[in-house]
Design a protein that fits this description.
mainly alpha
Amino acid sequence: MAQIPMSVDQSVEKKEKNQWVQLWKKLIRNPGALIGFILVSLTVFCALFAPLIAPYDPGEANLGARLMAPIWADETGESTYILGGDQLGRDLLSRIIYGTQVSLMVGIISVLLAMGIGVFLGLLAGYAGKWVDDIIMRIADVQLAFPFILFAIIIMAIFGGGLWMMILVLGLTNWVGFARLIRSEVLSIKEMEFIHAAKAIGNHPISIVVKHIIPNVASSILVLSTMMVAEFILLEAALTFLGLGIDPTIPSWGGMLADSRNYISTAWWTAIFPGVAIMLTVLGFNLLGDWLRDELDPNTRR
């Protein structure tokens, strides 16, 4: 029996599937990328299923377990907390697990906001050029010249802190990285022959940007976004540590570090474990971002 030839759609679907399979094989063959993927996956899993895997209510205080040592470091054998308790007797492990929700929410939503603003302005500056480019880049220069921490302190002192205010501040103050990157790539791409051909046949500038330029800068956006999530998680922890971020009633890693300042010499676990959680999460996103850059950037691909 003659074999029925595949349709064009089936062929394209099979090709895309093979590309994802090849990408997955490259991922598991790269130790650093695999570690990053595991760490990020673990963080996402904890954020999604925190109510199911946390052994205790993260906000439940038990003064009888105040500064209780981890179960494996308690010489009295009375501890019931795997990673110990904080200054109010709350289970540290449960608070760390719930803290993943805050860190990922701040990191991902802030990056989406910064990416939306930065990519739009970068495309506009790079493609339009001339005075539009000059105005946008001068605004970016002013933004870069202003210290982020000082700006965040001023805004939050005036309008108050909180989760959504922090996300807004992070997004509105970190769009410059996306804008400068996309602008530089657009300046290069728009001089290529296929862009000139699209202009010659009468394609609208918006159509050229959407159909030809954005697909060519998508990989750079993905790589930068991955790394920016790690940066925003660190910034959230830093601002919350300074008392300008998340409400103290919400479990967050920065808040746990702030609470542990007075007890680090007597209850080391209250600072070490939240710090390790931040370190591993940031490390995971950075390792994954480095691998994506190597795989998606033709200039660094081996």
